[in-house]
């Protein structure tokens, strides 16, 4: 069915949001399988090339909540265009990067695009009728989840057919056109949160995120007991404490701590932390497992393309589960979906622990992981959206995405340490390392499931929900969903 090319068309708005969020999610995983290729082409070391991932992670962790808050203040549509333009510019710089330093700088610019997640959820809440918000958020979450999985699948064929620079050229073209479409067709937000940026809180937030994520990401290379790692972790604690104090005392907080203390918010964020730890580890280490040469006594010696194809069941399952999640919420609550998604992850990780000798076992386990991710992404987003005032949707969903990223960094670091602790004579990990790693993922998934059961039910969440403070001239906040486009 053709889209109506007019400003405010819900279908066109959703298509634009989906393209931006989907390609940002894809860029999170698209580069991982080809790091050795980039290392060889740009004549750099293995330690240096990992900054292509680390720089992206750090940049996105900083800009996602901050630009989500700015969008709540000055307009989500406006900041969506800024974020997409930055993402397209970063892709252009990466595509032509002559040195590893330029490529790392380009990835920092790309990280600004992380704000498309909270901004997209906020625009959906502002522009869609109340009855359609849940299904739209679920569908958007499915696209985000599938985008991350699609990156693993597409990386091999693109590099084999063209070269790794097309991993940036293709997103640049699509994201650039998406930014133009967002400017032309996505309506500006009717819901605003007046105020100004608290720069002290912004600097403290950026500081503790970098001080936490940098040693977690580089701990294996630097040594977990090294002065750099321990010093940065200590600095993270100090800066986090300072940030919390500054936000609590501020009359115009960057992130309202009263909002973060809402039962439906902090419990969902706890699940995001634990779920991110297991999810990102599967993305990172399942392809590595299947690419392990058979001379190691396990693995399948798969190429990058073959490893991507083995991930297809996971990709398809997460997309279908995410699409169905929002539509099923009237019968199958977001809390129930979140717990069920975590349970699928428990089952998949437990299966990988004891059964990983054949391709069909990897495919089935990947499918279960996909079902879990699809349900969890959609339900987490809906739980956050339904538990915060409309004026704080951007910053709240941005922090949820950030906490999931922090969990992913922690989980990947822990599982990497477990897998590589006792390598074989040739340097390859032992099968026992992967087995223990999958067991750790089972424990993380089980903890996420228990945390999901602590999320307040719909009635309890509604009873606990309190808007932090009324804002003059703000539109109706009962129940804080603004059907601004209902008449369109």
Automatic annotation (TrEMBL):
Region Disordered, residue ranges: 466-488
An MF annotation (GO) of this entry: transmembrane transporter activity
Keywords: Membrane, Transmembrane, Transmembrane helix
Main localization of the protein described in the UniProt heading: membrane
GO cellular component: plasma membrane
InterPro entries in the record: MFS, MFS_dom, MFS_trans_sf, Tet-R_TetA/multi-R_MdtG-like
Domain Major facilitator superfamily (MFS) profile per the UniProt entry, residue ranges: 13-460
Superkingdom classification of source: Bacteria
Membrane topology, as annotated: Multi-pass membrane protein
Cell location: Cell membrane
Membrane spanning stretches: 12-31, 51-68, 80-98, 136-160, 166-185, 229-246, 266-286, 306-326, 338-356, 362-385, 405-422, 434-455
Keyword Transmembrane helix: yes
Protein name, UniProt field: Drug resistance transporter, EmrB/QacA subfamily
């Amino acid at each position: 069915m053709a889209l109506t090319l007019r400003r405010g068309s819900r279908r066109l708005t959703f298509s634009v949001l989906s393209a931006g969020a989907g390609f940002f999610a894809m860029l999170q995983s698209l580069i991982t399988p080809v790091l050795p290729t980039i290392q060889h082409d740009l004549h750099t070391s293995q330690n240096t090339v990992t900054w292509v991932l680390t720089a992206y992670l750090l940049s996105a962790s900083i800009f996602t909540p901050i630009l989500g808050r700015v969008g709540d203040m000055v307009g989500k549509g406006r900041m969506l265009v800024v974020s997409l333009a930055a993402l397209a510019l970063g892709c252009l710089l990466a595509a032509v990067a002559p040195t590893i330093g330029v490529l790392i700088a380009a990835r920092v610019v790309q990280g600004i695009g992380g704000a498309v997640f909270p901004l997209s959820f906020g625009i959906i809440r502002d522009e869609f009728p109340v009855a359609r918000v849940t299904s739209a958020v679920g569908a958007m979450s499915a696209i985000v989840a599938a985008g991350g999985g699609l990156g693993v699948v597409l990386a091999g064929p693109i590099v084999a057919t063209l070269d790794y620079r097309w991993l940036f050229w293709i997103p640049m073209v699509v994201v650039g056109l998406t930014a133009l479409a967002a400017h032309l067709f996505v309506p500006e937000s009717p819901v605003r949160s007046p105020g100004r940026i608290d720069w002290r809180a912004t600097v403290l937030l950026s500081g503790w995120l970098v001080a936490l994520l940098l040693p977690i990401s580089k701990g294996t290379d630097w040594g977990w007991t090294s002065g750099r790692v321990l010093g940065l972790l200590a600095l993270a604690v100090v800066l986090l404490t300072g940030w919390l104090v500054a936000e609590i005392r501020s009359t115009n907080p960057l992130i309202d701590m009263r909002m973060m203390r809402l039962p439906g918010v902090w419990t969902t964020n706890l699940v995001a932390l634990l779920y991110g730890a297991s999810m990102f580890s599967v993305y990172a280490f399942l392809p590595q497992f299947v690419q392990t040469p058979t001379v190691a006594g396990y693995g399948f010696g798969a190429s990058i393309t073959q490893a991507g194809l083995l991930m297809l069941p996971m990709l398809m399952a997460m997309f279908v589960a995410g699409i169905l999640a929002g539509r099923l919420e009237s019968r199958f609550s977001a809390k129930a979906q979140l717990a069920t998604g975590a349970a699928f992850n428990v089952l998949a990780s437990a299966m990988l622990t004891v059964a990983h000798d054949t391709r069909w076992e990897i495919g089935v386990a990947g499918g279960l992981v996909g079902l879990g991710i699809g349900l969890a992404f959609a339900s987490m987003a809906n739980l956050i959206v339904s538990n915060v005032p409309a004026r704080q949707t951007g910053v709240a969903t941005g922090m949820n995405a950030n906490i999931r990223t922090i969990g992913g960094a922690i989980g990947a670091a822990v599982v990497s340490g477990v897998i590589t602790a006792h390598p074989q004579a040739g340097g390859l990990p032992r099968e026992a390392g992967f087995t223990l790693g999958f067991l750790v993922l089972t424990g993380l998934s089980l903890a996420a499931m228990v945390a999901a059961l602590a999320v307040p039910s719909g009635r309890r969440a509604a009873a606990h929900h309190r808007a932090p403070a009324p804002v003059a001239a703000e539109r109706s906040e009962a129940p804080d969903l603004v059907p601004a486009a209902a008449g369109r």
